[in-house]
């Protein structure tokens, strides 16, 4: 059988990936590296499955600014280990996709009629004053894509956007319009190069960052509200038809958690459930924004995000499994320096440890290790309006630093992951040693054997 040249390249990358250090779990909020060991740069991502291979398209933010540097393209057969391919789209001077313009949220569909891959994206200028879509096409998943142009769909604004393709290959643009006040769904033409008509409008909804999953005979729309890079409680809506009447909004997770400090980017079906693929944006250092992927549980008939520090996915079976760890309460550790016990109903056992850093530490003893790298989740509260960080040391060794986004309140608890090398047997983990700033208030840590 003759294979297309682009497919041969993907097979080579997949073959080489088998000889690299492979992960077997998804760790939301962790630094995610590709099979070459480089941090994955694919923010605001879109996903497409071709055969048994997934392709991940996203914004390369390695320069830590808003401007367009590349739409990256990664491939994977397991959604965990990703190989970087050639860039799918790169700047063209003198156009709306120059390096002084903005290209965000790339999404790709395959058009069977033309045997063509079609990319849509939010196309804009500095200050987000143009509010356009852009379209590019290619004959292979990673392209490179040929830019076709940017415009306002049907003459109206389009900012944060997504795409949805139904089983019959009818496809739709999902987009924030009218200065982000109204959310619209427009049908694409037969070539997927433009839109033909608006089929649904959620007036006054102030929604962006959309995605749709169809489950059984219902459509579920996921989206955030419009708070820039700051997180908010993402919502879901239900309808019998894409062009039908959509339900009132419902929360995807506990509202105070602000969707585990993330914003929706893409939503993928997984058997009878799904996967929420979001971004944990860091506006002051965009290239260090992390990916928050979490299972969407439909077992009740309604979608709900599953809190998971570490989890795995079985693509063939269409299932997910959340890892179980061993939890150590912070207040049971050994306090030193200025560290103090705190009492708050937000903590898992009503108590935690604060004033960590600037001499204050807490050491958690008798943590059993397996002699290999293990994921550890730090549960903390950070009531500041900015991020904090915490140092972590094992058995008195060198420290690693873990970023701690603001949790919105000192009563709200989030978790952040860190990978630690624990020796086989008992270990001591110290939080905030040699730290000149204050860390978040520590509720507990959970230690996992996976990783």
UniProtKB/TrEMBL annotation:
Domain CBM6: 326-448
KW Hydrolase (keyword) present: yes
Keywords carried by this UniProt record: Glycosidase, Hydrolase, Signal
InterPro entries: CBM13-like, CBM6, Galactose-bd-like_sf, Glyco_hydro_43, Glyco_hydro_beta-prop_sf
Species of origin: Rickenella mellea
Protein name: Arabinanase/levansucrase/invertase
Matches recorded under Pfam families: CBM13-like, Glyco_hydro_43
GO molecular function: carbohydrate binding; hydrolase activity, hydrolyzing O-glycosyl compounds
CDD domains named in the record: CBM35_galactosidase-like, GH43_Pc3Gal43A-like
Protein family according to the UniProt entry: Belongs to the glycosyl hydrolase 43 family.
GO terms for biological process, alphabetical: carbohydrate metabolic process
SUPFAM superfamilies linked: Arabinanase/levansucrase/invertase, Galactose-binding domain-like
Signal peptide as annotated in the record: 1-22
């Amino acid at each position: 059988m003759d294979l297309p040249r682009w497919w041969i390249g993907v097979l080579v990358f997949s073959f080489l990936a088998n000889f690299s250090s492979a992960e077997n779990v998804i760790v939301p909020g962790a630094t995610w590296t590709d099979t070459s060991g480089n941090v994955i740069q694919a923010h605001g991502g879109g996903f497409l499955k071709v055969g048994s291979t997934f392709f991940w398209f996203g914004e390369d933010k390695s320069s830590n600014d808003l401007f367009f540097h590349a739409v990256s393209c990664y491939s994977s057969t397991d959604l965990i280990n990703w190989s970087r391919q050639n860039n799918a789209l790169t700047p063209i001077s003198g156009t709306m996709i120059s390096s002084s313009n903005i290209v965000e949220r790339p999404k790709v569909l395959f058009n069977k009629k033309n045997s063509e891959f079609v990319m849509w994206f939010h196309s804009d200028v500095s200050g987000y004053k143009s509010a356009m879509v852009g379209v590019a096409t290619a004959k292979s998943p990673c392209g490179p894509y040929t830019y076709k142009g940017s415009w306002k769909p049907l003459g109206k604004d389009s900012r944060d956007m997504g795409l949805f393709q139904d089983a019959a290959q009818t496809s739709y643009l999902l987009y924030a319009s009218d200065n982000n006040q109204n959310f619209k769904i427009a049908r694409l033409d037969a070539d997927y190069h433009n839109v033909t008509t608006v089929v649904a409008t959620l007036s006054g909804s102030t929604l962006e960052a959309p995605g749709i999953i169809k489950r059984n005979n219902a459509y579920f729309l996921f989206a955030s509200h419009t708070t820039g890079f700051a997180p908010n409680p993402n919502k879901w809506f239900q309808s019998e038809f894409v062009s039908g009447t959509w339900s009132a909004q419902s929360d995807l997770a506990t509202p105070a958690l602000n969707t585990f400090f993330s914003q929706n980017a893409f939503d993928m079906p997984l058997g009878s459930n799904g996967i929420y693929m979001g971004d944990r944006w860091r506006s002051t250092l965009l290239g260090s924004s992390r990916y928050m992927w979490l299972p969407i549980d439909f077992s009740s008939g309604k979608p709900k995000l599953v809190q998971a520090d570490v989890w795995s996915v079985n693509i063939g079976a269409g299932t997910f499994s959340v890892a179980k760890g061993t939890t150590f309460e912070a207040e049971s550790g050994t306090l030193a320096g200025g560290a103090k016990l705190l009492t708050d109903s937000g903590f898992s056992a009503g108590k935690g440890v604060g004033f960590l850093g600037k001499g204050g530490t807490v050491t958690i003893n008798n943590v059993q290790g397996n002699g290999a790298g293990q994921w550890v989740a730090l549960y903390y509260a950070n009531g500041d309006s900015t991020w904090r960080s915490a140092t972590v040391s094992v058995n008195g060794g060198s420290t690693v630093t873990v970023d701690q986004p603001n949790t919105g309140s000192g009563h709200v608890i989030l978790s952040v992951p860190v990978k630690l090398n624990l020796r086989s047997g008992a270990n001591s983990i110290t939080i905030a040693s040699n730290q000149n700033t204050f860390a978040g208030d520590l509720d507990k840590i959970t230690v996992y054997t996976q990783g």
